[in-house]
Amino acid sequence: MTTPSTRLPAALRTEALEQLLTERGLVDPTVMDKFITTYETQVGPLNGAKVVARAWTDPAYKQRLLAEGTTAIKEFGFSGPQGEHIVVVENTAKTHNVVVCSLCSCYPWPVLGLPPSWYKDPAYRARVVREPRTILAEMGLPLDDDVEIIVRDSSSEVRWMVLPERPAGTEHLTEEQLVPLITRDAMVGVAKVSAPEAAK
Amino acid sequence: MTAPLPIDGPAAPPRANGELLFAEPWQSRAFGMVVTLHGSGAFAWPQFQAALIDRIRIWETSHPEGECWDYYQHWLGALEDVLAADGTVFADEIELRARELANRPAGHDH
User: Fold this and answer.
1) Could you say which of A28, A139, A157 has the minimum Cβ distance to residue B5?
2) What is the spatial distance between Cα A99 and Cα A85, in angstroms, rounded to a whole number?
3) How confident is residue B13, by pLDDT bands cut at 50, 70 and 90?
């Protein structure tokens, strides 16, 4: 793969490729701009947070979500590339799921947006498989030894998403009030959701 | 429980992703080309995914000492591989055009 051509700056190669594809009618730059803007401004972890808040407050929805992730998520209108086979797994006090794509960067775009850089980093991808407890502790999530950790590798067709545990002290909150508490990292399984300070 | 401490800063919704999606403009164009081409049926996602896995594996097993990880380089490389494999655009065409672009006079901007 290391031909001399790969040493040209990526910005130039990208511009060249875009020109060629546009000239050949294969890419319409305005369509492309729309895709980019959509992912930059609309598709992000807020989508997933809405799904999680619904699951926390509506037992029937939770059941659907755990049984048929993609279909239940579509009820919100969230779909698209990397959303065809979303499987949602539930974190509890005794079982902790954490998501990785050990071979590349597969990630459930419709609910979480594009992955953060640490998710794509070779260190995270290799280490979370080998020593999940250690890397989770390093990321600020020390887990007791009696908590079972399950590493969910997204490199097949499946895109995993974690349904985090609803924190104690949030029983009085509504679905809408729960949404802002739910972080991207909790839905990847490298963090837990915390109750708001006032609720503690 | 301690507060979540993601290594790249807090990432609570509704922020787009808690960090810049694209560190440089070319990365967003490379991303956009793949999504647009896939959207118009130019290739199936598993084709691109397999090319990306190959690019990443090759880099991880044999990158030059000291060369930093650059995810979107692999993303772009995978796109080039997919397009070359089905005869849509070949690497030498890209290189030729890129060299023309490199030779533009300074201040060419559109």
Assistant:
1) A139
2) 14
3) very low
pLDDT (tens place) for every residue of chain A, 200 residues total: 444 444 689 999 999 999 999 999 999 999 999 999 998 888 899 999 999 999 999 999 999 999 999 999 999 999 988 888 999 999 999 999 999 999 999 999 999 999 998 999 999 999 999 999 999 999 999 999 999 999 999 866 899 999 999 999 999 999 999 999 999 999 999 999 999 876 55
Is A104 among the catalytic positions? Answer: yes
Nearest-10 crossing angle of helices B45-62, B71-85:
130
- Nearest one of B41, B103, B31 to A14, comparing CA atoms: B31
A14 contacts B97 by C-beta, under 8 angstroms: no
Does any CB of chain A come closer than 8 Å to the CB of residue B88?
yes
Verify whether residue A101 is a known catalytic residue.
yes
Give, for A163, the enclosing helix (H) or strand (E): strand A159-163
Answer whether B1 sits within 8 Å of A113, measured CB to CB. Answer: no
Tell me whether B4 touches chain A (CB under 8 Å): yes
* A79 included as an active-site residue: no
**Phi, psi angle pair for A21, to nearest 5°:** -65, -35
What's the token pair of residue A186? 């909790």
Domains recognised in chain A with CATH numbers: 10-41 (no CATH), 45-199 (3.90.330.10)
Q: What angle do CA B89, B92, B94 make, to 5 degrees?
A: 60
Question: What's the gap between Cα B55 and its chain centre?
Answer: 11
Looking at A79, A102, A105, A194, which residue is catalytic?
A105
Q: Which residues pair with A87 in a beta bridge?
A: A160
| Angle formed at CA A31 by CA A30 and CA A35, multiple of 5 degrees | 115
Q: Which residues pair with A22 in a beta bridge?
A: none
By percentage, how much of chain B surpasses pLDDT 90? 64
